[in-house]
Amino acid sequence: MQIRTFKTLFLTGAALTLCGTLPAAAGYQARSYDLPAQPLGDALRTVARRSGQSIVAPTGLVAGKRAPALKGDFSPEAAVSLLLAGSGLGPRRVGDALVIQRADAESAQDAQGTGEGAGDAAIVVTGTRIRGRAPAGASVITLDRTAIDQSGYATAQQILQSLPQNFGGGPNETTAATARGNADSNTSYGAGINLRGLGASSTLVLLDGERPPMAGVSGIFTDLSMIPVSAIERIEVLPDGASALYGSDAVAGVVNIVPRSRFRGAEMALRYGLGDGVREFQGSAIAGTRWSSGQAMLSYEVYFRSRLAAEDRPYVSEDLRRYGLGDYRGAAGVPGTIIAGGRRFGIPAGQDGTALRASDLLPGQVNLRDRYAGSDILPQQARHAVFASARQSLGDLELHAQALFGDRRYEVRRPTARNALTLTVPVTNPFYVDPIGTRQPVQVAYNFGQDLGAERGRGFSQALGATLGADLAVERWNLAFGTTYGQQSEGLTVDNLVNTARAALALADTSRATALNLFGDGSANHPATLDRIRGTLTSGGRYRLWAFQLRGDGPLFAMPAGDVRLALGAEHRRERYVSDPAGLDITTAAPIVSTASAFRGVRNVTAAYAELALPLSDFDRKGFGIGRLDLSAALRGERYEGIGETVNPRVGLSWAPVRALRLRGSFGTAFRAPGFGDLRQDASTTVYFAYPVPDPSAPGGVTNALIVRGNDPDLGPERAATWTAGIDLRPEARSGLHGQLGYFGIHYRDRIVNPSSALLTFFTNRAVYAPIIHVSPDPAAVAAYYASPFFQPLTAIPASAISAIVDARTQNLASQRMSGLDFDLGYRFALEGGGAEIGMSGSYLLDFRQRLTATAPSIALVDTIGNPPDLRLRGRATLSLGGFGAALFANYVDGYVNATSGAAKPVGSWLTFDVQLRYRIGEGGGRPGLSFALSATNLFDRAPPRTAYLLGTTTIGYDVENASPLGRVVALQVSTRW
User: Which of 322, 332, 631, 720 is found 20 to 30 A from 772 (Cα to Cα)?
Assistant: First the structure.
């Protein structure tokens, strides 16, 4: 059953009369129907034509509403009742005709008693806590089941990534190696959403209105990969600050995933996709039933995608000379490079190191190695997910429950990072070569990728969430109590790492049969020797959530334009994150368990809120007489244990001078509390070290700086002010022009920033980072840092040579200002037996600027790598005629600049197309129907624009945050429903 966003429509406009051909006195027999989900007016017209029953439906009532699929043998009255289920409408027989009208309290109760739901009055729309009301001043983007099916995408993350308001940075599969936006906390290769590019932790994700468990190290984001697409009824996106309603994290907006809890019948689907170097399989089954006082639904989905190898995408390489971008390969190669007396000597290729002489070496040559050789761009993913829900009415009391379980396993060959090493070879090594005749130990820069194989990561992520609630109708009020439990567990194992302690022992071995040989052209070592130096790293953690809610909403008193309605609520939740002690077999001769890396965080959050909706004027009622005017106001107070208290208001105003036009605006404040990882104060987060940082103004071009990393113990919440204004064109006819244009502004302050990722630009952008740079520091302060147990001697720089201290701790530093436009414009065509639509949606950033501190200069972020481009578009053209359907989508990302390596270099725009063809065979008579869908994403296999993207310690040839390496994927889906 299609659950729709409620929009207040009133009985106006010409009545749409659907007339049959039978005489008034005739009886109407049951007819066989096999109708897909479609606009309500189209479905009613089909029933009238087939049954001969006269059906009168006022245009203003059915406009914008959709009917669920209808299959089986029904009388006209029964068919119409099923089509109207959940719409807030009901049929009434007047003479020989069925007249569609609003369901009154009695008819709504009757509908509930038949298991069809009480209509839109029971639906809470994202952006408000008041049932049956659209949020005043807000615009909610809704991706319904039809849009989900037409997209051709297999996962919730892919569907949401197509939104122009979303930015691909932050926790995602391709960004795990970068530190931006907490992407490096995504150790399980999950998938988050990042509205406006303000960070995944600034977008609140809800599952049917409640918070699911969080993923990543310290629970930093919501993992969309756990939610089965087959169980989603619709996705509602509110791209506006909503902390006054939902609390922390709702700065950039809210994404509410609404499940198919009211599904009735059974549906099965199989999908197989194939691309260049990748394949995927998806299977799903969903079944739902209803009885006189309740309903239940159960859904299962399995998903598998093979790994995508770097060798299948030539731009995933450190050697980008073919694109005119340079060579960024690491100096630890195969064969390696000997370093002796400050000079470098390349080891020649094509020999095993057993007979190498000093005269064979290549003076001045550095052997390079592409660290992406033999690695994967995307991991292999396998996921199982189960979703279940149930409702049971007991008079005025309704009990409801839902549960989600997801299990995802992944494997990936990681780029060689830890295994590209510079090791010291003693003179006792039987393969030792002395290039300068000093008989001193030499260093060899060597990549172990050919000896040990690729660094291999494998792991799991398991999510479990359950909600139990009760709704009680008291007069015209609804009281609701609910409790939620959620847990997400993750584990990671990395194999084929070099254990440096055992490697040192193997280098000191004097036996040619067992000693480690670094002087050959790869794979010149005995397997037993390699097994001895092979190491492993393990880690993991669990996030748990317990939440309790007590809510109520209903009318306060009547005004000429309608009832003033109030929503009140109190909520409490307890969050806990526990990381497992890390298993380390990489730096010591025997494996150890590092308890220092384990931590736990616990906090309690208590909140109360109130929301008021005031109808000030209406078309058909008294009031100001200026059309429809609605005002809403909300206030929420929240207390975070150990952090503090915050109060956030929001006001919204909507004015429709005529029915087809709405003007809207809103203002509110929002906040985000620090994550558990931001609050850690231990050896795993705190480190001091000296480093020669590039500095054009310093003698020799570098400044010896002491870098202080860790977390500021005085971290507080991030805060923001948000405002919107917009205009919506909403004609009541099912054909014609429709659209919306909205302005948004965000002032985000006290942003939690980790400046350490900008280590190499601290002094090249001195004006930006001046507030955290302390020049000519007190020698006593420098000495205290050097004496600290947190000091790491990464370089040989003495304390006396330090000329600056850089406070690169995670702290409340930055302020950001963003403004832009969201728009959607479309035209619908009514066709005999179906319809068509063309349109385009997009988001345009007018400005996005940041100050590191209040005294730092403002720098532009928009149209720079690592940040959103100024323009994203998604065009659409859809057609539905009987059992045939087609959809075409165009996705456009505007060009921007890459200035990470000095001079700004342009990054080209990217245009891709997705297409889907589908055909449905309906047998009728209660027999199952069959649907076929052929989809192609990135139809013309457009590769991402080339650019030198700095990804952690490596560089590759495309922007992992603004583009996908997946390429064209052609998929065939077969589904049946009965």
Answer: 720
